[in-house]
Amino acid sequence: MPPKSSSGNEKDIAEEDEVLQAVILADSFNKRFKPLTVGKPRCLLPICNATLLDWTFESLALAGVQEIFVICRSYADQVKAAIRDSKWSKPSTGLKIVPIVTAKETFSPGDAMRDIYTHQIITSDFVLVTGDLVSNVRIDEVVRVHKERRRTNKDAIMTMVVKESGATHRTRSRGESGVYVLDPNTHECLHYEPVVGYPATSRVTMPREILAEHPEVEVRYDFIDCSIDVCSVEVPSLFQDNFDYGDIRRDFVYGVLTSDLLMKSVHCYVVKDGYAARVADTRSYDAVSKDILSRWTFPLVPDDNHPGGHQYEHLRGNKYIAKDNSVSLSRTCKIGNNTLIGSHTTISANASVHASVIGQRCTIGPGAILRDAYIFDDTHVGAGAVVEGSIVGARVTLGDGCRVPRGCLIADSVAIGANAKLRKFERVSKKREARPQAAGDGSDGDDEEDSDSELEEVEANQEDAAQIIGRDSNALVWPHPSPDDDEELDERESFYNQRLMRIGDTASDLELSDGGSTTSASETETESDFSGMHGLSRTSSATSASGPLSSAVDPSAETSAIHTLSSAAAETEFRSEVAQSLERAFAEGHSVDNAAVELKTLRMASNVPLRRVREAVVGAIVDRVPLVPGDAAAQRAEIAKIVRRWGPLVDKIGGVDPVETVEVLQYHCAAAGPRLPLFAQVLAQLYQQDLVEEEDIRAWHASPAARGEGVKPGSALLEGLKKCWAIGAKMIEQFESEEEEESEEESEEESADEKPAREAPAAKPPAKEDESESEEESDEESGSEESEDAPATAKPTAPKAAAVSSSSSQTSKPAQTESEDSETDEGSDEFVSGEEEVSAEAPAKPTTPAATVSSAPSAAPAKAAAESSDESEEDE
Amino acid sequence: MSAQTQSGDFDIYATFQQFLQDEEISPPLAAISALAEAIVRSNAGTMFELVQALNDGAEELKRRSPNPISLNAGCELFIAFVTLFPHESDNFAELKKELEQQGRKYAAEALTFRDKIAELALGFIKDDSVILTHSHSRVVLKALLHAHKTKRISVYVTESRPRGLGLKTYETLTAAGIPCTVVLDSAVAYVMDRVDFVLVGSEAVVESGGLINYVGSNQMAIIAKAANKPFYALAESYKFHRLFPLSQYDLPTHNPNILSFPTPIGRSAGTDDAPSTSTPDIITKQPARLGTSSSSTERAMNQEQIAKNPGVDYTRPDLISLVFSDVGILTPEGVSQYLVGMFAG
Amino acid sequence: MAPDPTPIPGHKAVETLVAKLRRRQIVGSRQAALETVLVLRQVVSKARFSNIQQLIVIIREAGRRLVEAQPKEHTVGNTVRRVLHNIREEYHSAVKVSAPTSSRNVYTISKFVLQGQPRKQTVGAPKSETTATLKEDDPDDPDSFARGIKPILMEAIQDVLDELETVYDNVSKTAKDHIHSDEIILTIGHSRTVEAFLKSAGHTRNYTVIVAETAPSYSGHDMARALSAAGISTFLVPDSSIYAIMSRVNKIILGAHAILANGGLVAITGSLLAATAARAHSTPVVVCAGQFKLTPLWNLYHDYGALDFADPSSVLGFEEGKLVERVDVVNPYYDYVGPELVDVFITNDGDHPPSSVYRLIKETYDDDDHEL
Lengths: 876, 345, 372
Known about the structure:
Chain B: Keywords: Cytoplasm, Initiation factor, Protein biosynthesis, Transferase. The complex is a heterotrimer. Chain A is an alpha/beta fold.
């Protein structure tokens, strides 16, 4: 029995804040229950003769929730009606239930959350559940803990309720689950990786610094995700900011935990006593029903606190018979264990019922056999019919002697002819009347015409239907899903994975290696070094998990695939956004910090790698410099002004990486022809502002990127790069010389200024030349930027470059990388995305120019160096 | 005197018998009705005389009926009622009328008692239960048939020698569609483990809380106790009998003849001092009977042998789980308290 | 739900209690009883009625809702019956019935038969000497009756409340007469009543208590903790060893969830085991319980003791995934202990043998309230 304390809890919650709010997502955004959910939302499907919604309300009422918002999308009117008529809307229940209808184009929980945000209904921490929850967990307790935590740590935005269970528990979804990495002391969820059942996710990675920061770490794969989340007010706004967050676990939690910007933390509440599970698919429907019947949900059991308000008598062996003596059992019928029989139901002679749930006003014909069957209200099962492991809707008529084998779903008011023999996993729904189906399709993500077309397509192939469903039947037989028709589907919905969620499907033929989470040392090694540099980045998981075998399977790769499209848009949008915001910043003279914040949020919103931001900023700064041709001093002054003012921004955008900064600068200047000469001075300024250290410059100079490797030869960009590189080289020389004579430094600067302009032609040959030698390496470890920017070099104008690099970044997106280690699989991505001609022909082509020109340029670098040096003499 | 003469031409026993013709009427009620009749007939002028007359009538009935116990209960009840009836009325004739009305009224409404009891018992009869009952009792039948409407029950009924009334029960139940099997009285112990509880009617419920019922009930109760099965008795409140038997032999039905041993023939020939009327006709009849019975392949008791057997027996209160009556469900203790409450006024 | 003419006053209060009962947020016989009285008091105070019948109808209605909400908390029903009983008594004593309602024509044989009902002989003298100015169904002022009688009725309810509040003390009044020095007492489960009883005995006597741990709820642990804290020498033993140690036990003391009309009782699981073991060693079995636990019901579950089944998780961890699918776990919460196994009930109103429970119930409640 639940502890007395509960009532107490309610009180102190009540006093420590106004009302406890809850949000129910009454739509499931998938089509697992079709065709049962044709013409009816899933949350109104009955389980143990009470609608899922009622169970959910009861669970919440148990926790002393006072205000409930029900987010309903499909068949909203039905849901509303149901709520209005239910006992819950009576004032005496002390519940305030507000149905909220969201737009038809709400396709994911994420969209729903955004809706909540726009409605501005949430005033405090709230409980977020799905409309198919069955739970007796003391959620109020969870809320208390959550608030407790919030007091000390504002960043703990969410507490997920999870229930311990074996990895192979009937109630635990085999199709989609997750690996949780917890800190056993604080119960903070350090990492979360979604896992699909088939093809079995074989490896899961977690960033190494988790191990570094937390001496003790639990990696759990035995949790049932109750989908009860206690969220703080920020959560909906976070969804708002990241419009690509779809699923709450796969996207939101994963995103929050792996983002180096949000700095939010998510916690888990591991339920010790109490039961909670959601009816996410037909399989869990079966499991949860069984759990209810065998009283795991106590006191939420039919004979005690039935949410539908029915009265049942509990007999030995967990048999529940409606109390009001209205059930008529024939003397010879057999009622097995774990059965529930609704009122006014008749069970005729010799019928046998085992582990089944029968609704109200049903008639079970003589000699009928029901095993693991779920029969909704007002259904007639003919004499001698056999129903096994199936769900039969309301007002259905099963003809005499017809067979319904494992896994069938029969929609409402279907009539199946006598002696019909359904195949396993048959899905049958009622033929539509002439009028096009009115309300949008049930709990799947499609909108109406979509589902209509679906039905039509179903109607299309009915040729074999007749002998399946027997004569005088009004049924449509749905085509069996097959592995090949789901390429476009999110793989969670893929056929094989769905099989794991199907009622009565043992899926024993699928091999499901629960590889568990394997993190090979080496990978975590390398990746975490880099991710160390830029906080925790998706790179880590991407690199290690996308092995040759599991790359397709890898969850993160998969999620990123989802992102790819949206991110393209995000990129371009981001570009302009940044440009504008900086424009504003410069114009209105914001403080650097403000500008930085703005950028951060921007980046968060469109989720781009740090490098893009840096590019944008550096670019903006350089473009900012007014050109003062001729007058070197004035020019320098200008630059100094700008850089002094805005330089710091470069490091404020999150993650300090001078080397990259220089590189970015180089590329920008190189790309933007007219500003090429500014490179040296800007670099110098950065150096003076200590934004760039000497060794940074050396590092940059040494880097292959700096030498413009992988860039299409002969392009203007390349030349630019070369020049800049040369300047860099010169600068470094100065660093050597600096020790003895500081005085030169000055002159160095100006000399540096004039140089590039004149040197432009001179520097060309060397470029070609050392490019050619660089080609060899370029294939195996060519930096993503180079390989992709290559096509751009055709027209190296600033805007174009931007556009291109955005496209590039989209391909580079999967890894979400800003760290070099990821380039390897970047590379592999390239091959996939058909850009190999770049990297492929790269080695081939240059050979000719290399051959032709190589003789000339050999001296060039020296000469260039010489010139520059002696000119510097001249100046003095 | 006058009372005597009056009751002379009015044969109370005959009236009693004709009341008893009605299937529904049980002896106590018939007795009450008869006594009510007697009131009308009697020309008693005072309360004392009236009570006197009634007592005589009761005596008459008791004397002439073979098994007076249950009708005793009825008489007792009625007479006690009459004596305790608050009579501040001036006109004695009216009082007599009043009393007579009361008697008939009660006899009438008493017919509904069985339904009440059946309703009470329903709560104890669970779906799919197997019930053992004894002999033939209207109230038990009523309860079973009532339960049959909503519950799936099956019944074992004892043959209940020598009158074999169990068969009558069997026919009624089978006609109603209740699966029913007749078992030998001697098979009660054998069948006991199969049954969920025992349900018996009663001749009378006595002050000790014990039960007087058709012979065989006692052993049934003992076996039920041994098997830890509940033993329920159904008794209308007019069967509450102010009697405190301590053993089987305290019952009014017990006479020396019952269980008596025949005196050896040789001795009786020598000494013919036997005063008892019974012994000689035993001697005379016995040989013949024995002859016939011995000739028949299947042996059965003859009348004499049966006559030596009790018709009813007494079941101790500690063997009874509960007594269902129209005044509610009572524990045996409850019954005794009840009787005290009734007759202590 | 509510009778259409008069919707239950204090409907809200009733409904909230109903919800709490359904959700098992109120458990334990005493707490349930207390809550019920409080709600009923509200109901009566809010009720508008012009004669006693109306009031009784109202109370019955409220009571029925409560009982239906949680039939397994018997004390709810008991309290309602108790309140009804007291109210009637008060009413009768207040409205000193002018004449025994012209017995002449109503006095029939069946009435006569009903005299058999055991009754409380001593009808308590009217608490307040409100003269018989109470006029029922006063046409011009329908509320006058209510106004007149409410204070008395409130008192009546207050009595029930007081009884509940003092029940532990009153039960343990006689503790030291039942427990003697150097005795070994065995108890099971954690009954507040028993705890109070043993503690109060502990003041004067020096004895030993053996507590069975009472799986799967392990409430025995709490009991042991409480007793040892009170300085009573305490042993904690597994339930399985009850029989073995019984030979050394002088007395076993049980708490009760409800006392049934036949003198049997419903008590925490394990009680039956203990009582049977005690019987085998003919060790006296003592039951401590307040009279509010007297329930005018019969055990209809003679074939298996418990009438309430808790969740299996305390027996088998939910995480035992594989097992959960294969076995049906049953976790009865109560035992039914038959009257033949009990020697005496120690109540807040004297000690009684099982056989007299029947009479007590007849005295405490009115028959026509048994079915609410």
